[in-house]
Design a protein that fits this description.
Strand content: 15-25%
Shape: globular
CATH superfamily: Ribonuclease Z/Hydroxyacylglutathione hydrolase-like
Structural class: alpha/beta
Number of helices: 6
CATH architecture: 4-Layer Sandwich
CATH class: Alpha Beta
Bound molecules: zinc ion
Distance between the termini: 32 Å
Strand order of the largest sheet: 1-2-3-4-5-6
């Protein structure tokens, strides 16, 4: 069953184990999801080891289960995703791989859009999907038509798009890329950086896309109608208290 159990590896498929860190919060929801990806007996990839923490470190090693670690992958360099990576890399002898040109950790060769990593029956393709962060990557696990969406699509909320690194136009384009990839059954499931896996995947992605588009249109209409300040705009667009609450949560 697909439940988030902190500190205990949860098997999601033949090749995917999830370990949820016990770091719940406004930006992390129930906590950061670390994924251990790879077939039995083959070197495994560890995606997003999360924050520095002994218990989570041990839980990741339990999920790796004595296998080699092929690479430590980082979806983006926000601090809920990577600080445990250097320790894990040192302990396992693996390299850290990320898109960021100047990452805040010692990294192996930089990952670029379309780069393909494979180990014992698990093939991961890096997808540069900026918007939430300029260096944001999703990973497609080809054998399972699963996409690790990190913070592009989360299980519990819409993503935060905050300047200077966040960019709404890029975010929309990244969602559109995911929708395109999923059309015609190209994707079976999404494994987000926070929250439960999403299946079927495209309804949720389209809903987020529609919601963002609607908000943007409303803002443009408000400007056209002569609304000049942010508070006036918030009052006009976010008319229901519940929506207002979630708008402050999602940024
Ligand atoms: Zn995050």
């Amino acid at each position: 069953m697909d439940t988030l159990r902190k500190g205990t590896p949860v098997r999601l498929s033949d090749r995917v184990l999830r370990v949820t860190q016990d770091n719940p919060g406004m930006f992390t929801g129930p906590g950061t999801n670390t994924y251990v990806i790879g077939g039995a007996g083959s070197p495994a990839f560890v995606l997003d080891p999360g924050e520095e923490d002994d218990a989570h470190f041990e839980a990741i090693l339990r999920a790796v289960g004595g296998r080699e670690v092929a690479d430590v992958l980082i979806s983006h360099t926000h601090r809920d995703h990577w600080p445990l990576a250097p320790r894990l890399a040192e302990h396992t002898g693996a390299e850290i791989r990320a898109f960021n040109e100047d990452p805040p950790f010692a990294a192996g060769p930089r990952l670029k859009d379309g780069d393909c990593l494979s180990s014992g029956g698990a093939t991961l393709v890096a997808l540069h999907t900026p918007g939430h962060a300029s260096d944001h990557l999703c990973f497609l696990l080809e054998e399972e038509r699963a996409v690790f969406t990190a913070d592009l699509v989360m299980g519990w909320s819409t993503s935060i798009i905050a300047p200077p690194d966040g960019n709404l136009n890029q975010y929309m384009a990244s969602l559109e890329r995911l929708i395109e990839l999923g059309q015609g059954g190209g994707i079976d499931v999404l494994h987000p950086g926070h929250g439960e896996s999403i299946k079927p995947p495209l309804d949720r992605v389209r809903e987020i896309h529609r919601h963002r588009r609607q908000r943007t249109d409303q803002a443009l209409e408000a400007i056209a109608a002569g609304v000049a300040t942010i508070p006036e705009m918030v009052e006009r667009i976010y008319t229901e208290p519940a929506v207002l609450a979630s708008s402050t949560q999602v940024g």
